[in-house]
Each structure stands twice: as C-alpha cells, then as structure tokens.
Task: structure prediction
Amino acid sequence: MNPFRTAYGVTRLVWSPDDAWLAYVRDADEAVVCVEAETGREVFAWDPPRFWRGVFVAAVSAEALLVVTRAKDDVRVFAVAVPDGGVLAEARFDAAPGDLAVEVSADGATAAVLSGLTNDAKGRGYELTWLDTRSLTVVGRGPLRPAQGDRPKRMALHPDGLWATWLTPQQSARYDDRREVERFDRAGAAAVGPVFGGSGDLKVLRWVDADRLLVTIDPVAANPSAGWTRLLLTDPSRGRVLFDGEKEAGRVGVSLVYSEVDVHPEDGRLLVAWTDRLAEVDQGSSGTATVLGRDGAVLAGWRTPTAFSGCYGAVWAGAGDAVIELVAEGEEAVALTRREAYGEAPTTLRAERLQRPKGARGWGESGRGVTGTLTRSPRGRWVAVTWTIGRYAAGEQVSWVAAEG
Result:
C-alpha cells in the first residue's frame, strides 16, 4: 500500500504540471518549500526577501517555480529552479501600494499581478502588470478603474493568459444588483456582463475551462458563523447563468457550503463537493456531491455521511464515472472511499489516522472536529487531503497518496 505523505503548516499549495513535486508557502515563516511527491522528501526551502506579509507561488513548468512577493517599495518576482532551488532569474517593477493578487495562465507562460488591493490612498487606484514567466519581462501594464468603483479582491486569469477578469461589484447588499464580469487585457478593458443579480460577498472566482467561470458568493443575510454559499456556473461571453446552487440547496433540503470542484479529464463534467452549513463541532453531518454537465444541467447528486461538518471532498477517479470521496471517521481519522458509478455504494480504499505535527498548538481546543477537502494533482496521479483538527490549530496540513491506492 502506498504511504500517506504529509506536510505540515501549509499555505498556497501548488503541484508541478507533471505531478513530480509539490510546493507550498510554510505558514510559520513564509519560506517556499518544495517536496518530492513520490518520497515526501523536502527538496529545498527558500526564504524570499519581502517587506509585507504575503508570498505567492505558481508552478510554471516541471522545472521552475514562480515566486512573487511585495518588497518595501516594489514587487519582486523570482524564477526558482526545481530541484536545486537556485534563482534562475529575478525582476522588479513598481506597483500601486498595497497587497497583491497573482494569477498564472494554464500553460504557465503568462502571469498577471494586480496591485493596490488594500491601498486606502486616493487617486492611484489599481495596477495590472503582465509578465512573461520565462524571461520575467513586463509585457503589459496599466492603471485600472473598476466600472462600479468596488474594491477588487478576487481576480481570475483566463486559461489562455490573454485577459484577466473579476466580478463587480465584488460586494453587494442588494439582491437586485447586477453583478457583471469585467475583463482587462494588455490594451484596455471591456465589460462582458451582466451575468446575474444578487447580494453577497465574492469568495471564489475560477475559470474551470475557456468558456465557464465559477463564482461563489456568501449572501449578506447569512450568519457569519453559520453561513452558506451561493454557487453559480456562468458563461460570461453570453451573459448566462448555467447553474445556480440555490436550486441545488432546495433539492437537497439543507443549506450548503461550497468545498471544491473537480473537472472531468475527458468530457469537462464538473463534480462539486459541498458540506452542510456549519454545525456543532461534535455533530455528525453529510457531504453533498453534485455532477454538472457542460451546459450546467444536474446529471447526478448524492449525500454521504461524515463524522464532522466541514470534512468532505469528492474528485474524479479518472475515466468514466468513478469518484473518490473523503469522509471523517472520527476525531483524528479520515477515510478515502471509491464509488464506481453514481448509484453504487462506496467501498473503502483506505482509512488513515491523522498524525499531529510535533509541538502543535491549538489541536483539540474548543472541540476536535476534523475539517478537510480533497483535490487531485494535475495529471490525476495523486489525491491530496488538506486538513486541520481543532478550531484554533495553527495552519493547515496536506496529505497525499497515489490515486490508485
């Protein structure tokens, strides 16, 4: 049986395009750590220079990482070699004051850096800078003025790397507000929306392919300690909503919180994983899986018991309809199960006792409920569980294992 590998204190996890390694920002000191997937061996740890908290990483090829960080007066970008950890190239550029959002194209060739996200100064606004990740040269830049003046905080780069998008307004208190997708390229801006109407705070903005943009909203009416998620699958080019998660919650009969989405490697079907609205930490719960066709039609859906609300995940097992699911079995125990077809009962692939990091703080405080999500590596060789135990545990952990068991 393949071992269950674990890295502790993880943020901003990325996989190499060939599934050979994974990299992350270590929560304790913001060092960039690269780990060999097969052995779990740490290949290198590199501490980038920075002034403000916030390091962004992306795997731009099987041999290189892109690292972006904010220095005192500018933005610094590094190409870091894998596996030796050497700096291949470095670049600096001026940017609007404040935090950053960084996105990379599907082929890793282009990066977009949005600056000025937390800047309260009047006048300068936001700046979008485009980089060629191979040479680290600036290939486009310009100031931005969002159409409705709402402060951007979520950006998504289209898979082709030619334009960046965000939703505006990103926050709204009115249910009848029009929410639009704006697109910005190196030459200027063009509004695409409106896409839908509704209140709430934008949480996730993700292109699942070249035509479909996934949007998740936390409605303003929800209690922050027990919220739910409105998920929308949209086609911005036609201004259409293909799927609205409010209908799925009505079908299931409970308020659902978005966990993850996985795209089928063959036909583009989406597998959406949800958990029930937050409950008491010691209460059992169920995870919900929803299968969406390319047109947003619900093809299948089911509920799976889990020991703790917030610990559920579902990913495609490969070709066909097979699905791998994550459930909690106890306070520090999880199981991976496999469902060969939508209507079939799951079988257990493996059960694991989660291992605490040495000297961990916060584990078990105010309850020891497990939270966890499940994702696949780019080529589907590995499934990865991102998890934590206890409401006040510092950082998240990631464990991964070969998808075939």
In short: The CA atoms of residues 8 and 397 lie 5 Å apart. The first helix runs from residue 245 to 252. The chain is about 0% helix and 50% strand.
